[in-house]
Every structure is written in structure tokens, then in C-alpha cells.
Design the sequence.
């Protein structure tokens, strides 16, 4: 729910509470107004009746003809009393009083067949009318008590509704507005101190959630830029160091290669030592290539891509590592997917990456352990990837170090430089691939390289 929807909901709730309050108040006011009007009318009718009876009147039927004419004030009071009659019963009682007083009826005469009202004395007629008004007053008093109870309950309900509404509004404002703002403020305060790994914990779908995601994305982008800047600084340092190292290594390497090549040429073709000298020459050439890569470490990686077989690449690296595997009493298990499609890659640089991973696996594995190299195909999002997976049976990597494996100069080995995995990631990234590490302490480590399959070769891929 968006913040606008939440505010609209709060506004509609406030309008509903205000509407109910207004309706209840209007009903109470109208009820009391009608009750007051009815009481006023009854009281005024009582006063008119009293004024009508103030002048002495005949006490028995027929006496009016023998006495003085009825006073004009009595007539006026009676006419007003009759004019303000509210019900038919009251009108009949007033007419009875008028007949007792000898006053003409409002109707002026009786219709044919209509019987005349039985004659009655003035006290009897006045008593019946007074009892009628007393009954009306009692009924209004009962209605007043009912209205009082109902109004009291209505006031209590309105007060409770208003209080509940206010508490709900305050709670909604606190949950929907105050807490997200406080969380964002605290998180941005932590991020401003330089902790770019901290994240805003707001995860809603409203505007605050979008703002939190934007801040988290910004922090992640800043962290990545910071990592790249730090890596660039370290690459610059490596460049300076590599120039010095290369100058002092290349000349001895050239002498070693020349000596090994001369010795190999002097030996007969069937001499088994020729293979050893050939390995020396190959390793020297590879070391020379790595020294060159070290010199270019601080600059972007340039690739000379050709379609290559991943299985052949793995087998070449395995052949070069077999002497060290034998020396360390380690076993190598190759599980290569058949008919694996070729990959467009730089042969020398990818051999360097696989050799780095294989060397790390040998360093981490105890004597007698088995190192497995697996080639396979994965199809995330229907896009085939050729993968090389190197698994060891070492002690594993602590979780706190997993996030720093590809950081330049970050190493857990006493004799390590922290260049191997950083350079490997740089080369794999230049190939539009990815390198991932999974590890469990005490259960070994697995490093996997994923490379996109060359175009036009997807039909040769068979998923593992």
C-alpha cells in the first residue's frame, strides 16, 4: 500500500468519525428540541386553561342563562386554548369544556343524525382536560428520561469512538510515518560514517520502501565504487612493484630456459630426460608470461580469443600440475563432460586462472586427499555456460573471509601474496564470465568458473 493510499485511508476514517459525531449530535439536539417544544405547548395550554377558569362560571347545566354573560377574557382564553389543540382527543375535551361554559362549538351545529354530547358541569370538563394534560406531561417526562439515557449512551459512544480514532490515527502515524523515517535516519547516519555495508531495514511497498531501496542501492553502488577505487590503487602499487620484480626475474628466467633448451638438444631423442627439460622450458615460458601479466596487472586485460576446448585446457593444466600432486601425495580426479562446446577465450590467460585454482586446492588439501576438477554445462535462463569446478578436501574457508577472497593482497596463506584470485577474477570477468566460491568449514572448498559458450556451438552442449 502506498503512502498516499494510507493517508487517504486515514482521512476517510477521520471523515467517518466526524460524520458519525455530527449525526449523533444532530439527533440529540433535535430530540431535545422537540421535547422542549412539546413541554412548552402543554405548559402554555395549562396556562390558557387556568385563565379560562379564572372568571366564575355556572356549576350546573342551564345556569348560564340566569347569570351574567361570560367574561370576554374567558372567551379569548378559551378560543386560544381551542386553537392550539394538538390532538383530536384534546380538541374533544376542549369542546366539552366549551359546551359546559355555554360557548358555541367550532362546528357551529350538529349534522343530521349526530347526537349531542351529554351535558356536564364545568368542573368535570375542566378536570378531564387537566388530567389529559397531566398524562401528557407524564408521558413527556418518561420520554425525556429515555432521551437522557440514550443521549448519555450516545455521548459515551462518541467520546469512545473519537478516542479510539485518535489512538488509531496516532498508531498509524507512528507505524506508517514516524518509524520508517526514524529507521531511514538511523541507517543513513550509519552509512554516512563510512559503513557502506549497512542497509536500511524498511522493506514496505510504499514510498518509504522505495526510498529505502534507493538508499540501499546507492550504498551498494558506493561500496562497489569504493572497492574498485581501492583495487585501482592496489593495481597501481602492483604495477610499480611488478616493474621491479620483472626486471630482476626475467634475466634468470631467460638463463634457465636457454640452459634447459640447450641440454634438451644435446640429449638423444629417446632419452627420458628430454621430457623433464621440455617441462622446464614450458614452465619457464609460462612464468615469463605471468611476469608479463603482472606488469600489465594495473591496466585493463586484453584478450586474444580463439575457440578452445575447455576439456583440453583442463587436461593441459592437470598435466603441468601432476609432478606437484605426486610430490604432495595428492590424487587428481578429472570428471569432464563429453562433447563440451568450445568457448571463445584467451588460452594462456585461462590456463593461468585454472592453474591458480588448482594451486590453491593443492595448498589447502592434506596429504592423501583428492582434488576433483569437473567440467559441465549449466543453463541459467536458457543461456548455456561452460563451467570448470575445482573441489578440494581441505579445512574450508571461514565465513568472514569469503567476502574478501577476491580482494587484492587478501590472503590466508603464510606465503601468499593475495594476487592469484584477484587476477583470476579480473581475467574471468574480461571473458564475460563469473567466478564463485562455496565453502563449508571442515568440508572443503569449491571454486567454479562460468564462461559463455561460443556462438553457433550451443547445439553441441549437453547439460549435466
Sequence:
Amino acid at each position: 500500500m502506498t503512502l498516499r493510499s494510507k493517508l487517504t485511508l486515514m482521512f476517510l476514517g477521520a471523515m467517518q468519525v466526524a460524520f458519525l459525531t455530527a449525526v449523533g449530535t444532530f439527533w440529540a439536539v433535535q430530540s431535545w428540541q422537540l421535547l422542549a417544544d412539546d413541554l412548552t405547548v402543554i405548559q402554555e395550554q395549562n396556562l390558557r386553561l387556568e385563565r379560562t377558569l379564572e372568571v366564575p362560571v355556572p356549576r350546573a347545566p342551564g345556569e348560564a342563562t340566569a347569570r351574567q354573560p361570560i367574561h370576554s377574557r374567558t372567551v379569548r382564553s378559551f378560543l386560544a386554548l381551542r386553537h392550539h389543540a394538538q390532538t383530536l382527543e384534546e380538541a374533544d375535551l376542549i369542546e366539552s369544556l366549551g359546551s359546559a361554559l355555554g360557548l358555541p362549538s367550532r362546528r357551529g351545529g350538529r349534522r343530521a343524525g349526530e347526537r349531542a354530547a351529554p351535558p356536564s358541569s364545568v368542573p368535570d370538563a375542566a378536570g378531564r382536560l387537566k388530567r389529559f394534560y397531566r398524562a401528557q406531561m407524564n408521558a413527556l417526562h418518561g420520554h425525556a428520561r429515555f432521551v437522557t439515557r440514550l443521549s448519555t449512551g450516545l455521548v459515551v459512544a462518541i467520546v469512545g469512538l473519537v478516542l479510539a480514532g485518535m489512538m488509531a490515527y496516532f498508531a498509524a502515524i507512528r507505524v506508517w510515518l514516524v518509524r520508517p523515517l526514524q529507521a531511514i535516519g538511523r541507517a543513513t547516519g550509519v552509512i554516512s560514517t563510512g559503513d557502506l555495508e549497512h542497509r536500511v531495514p524498511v522493506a514496505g511497498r510504499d514510498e518509504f520502501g522505495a526510498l529505502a531501496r534507493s538508499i540501499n542501492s546507492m550504498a551498494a553502488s558506493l561500496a562497489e565504487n569504493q572497492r574498485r577505487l581501492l583495487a585501482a590503487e592496489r593495481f597501481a602499487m602492483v604495477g610499480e612493484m611488478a616493474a621491479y620484480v620483472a626486471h630482476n626475474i626475467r634475466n634468470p628466467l631467460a638463463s634457465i630456459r636457454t640452459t634447459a633448451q640447450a641440454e634438451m638438444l644435446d640429449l638423444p631423442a629417446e632419452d627420458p630426460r628430454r621430457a623433464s627439460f621440455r617441462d622446464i622450458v614450458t614452465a619457464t615460458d609460462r612464468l615469463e608470461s605471468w611476469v608479463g601479466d603482472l606488469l600489465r596487472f594495473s591496466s585493463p586485460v586484453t584478450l586474444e580469443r580463439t575457440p578452445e576446448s575447455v576439456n583440453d585446457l583442463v587436461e593441459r593444466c592437470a598435466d603441468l600440475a601432476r609432478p606437484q600432486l605426486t610430490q604432495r601425495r595428492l590424487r587428481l580426479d578429472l570428471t569432464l563432460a563429453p562433447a563440451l562446446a568450445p568457448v571463445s577465450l584467451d588460452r594462456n590467460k585461462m590456463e593461468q586462472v585454472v592453474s591458480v585454482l588448482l594451486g590453491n586446492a593443492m595448498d589447502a588439501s592434506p596429504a592423501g586427499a583428492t582434488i576433483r576438477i569437473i567440467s559441465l554445462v549449466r543453463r541459467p535462463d536458457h543461456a548455456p555456460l561452460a563451467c570448470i569446478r575445482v573441489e578440494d578436501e581441505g579445512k574450508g574457508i571461514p565465513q568472514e573471509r569469503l567476502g574478501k577472497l577476491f580482494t587484492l593482497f587478501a590472503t590466508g596463506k603464510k606465503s601468499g601474496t593475495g594476487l592469484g584470485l584477484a587476477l583470476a577474477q579480473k581475467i574471468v570477468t574480461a571473458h564475460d564470465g563469473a567466478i564463485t566460491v562455496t565453502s563449508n568449514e571442515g568440508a572443503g572448498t569449491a571454486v567454479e568458473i562460468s564462461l559463455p559458450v561460443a556462438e553457433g556451438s550451443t547445439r553441441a552442449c549437453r547439460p549435466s
User: Anything to note?
Assistant: The mean pLDDT is 78.
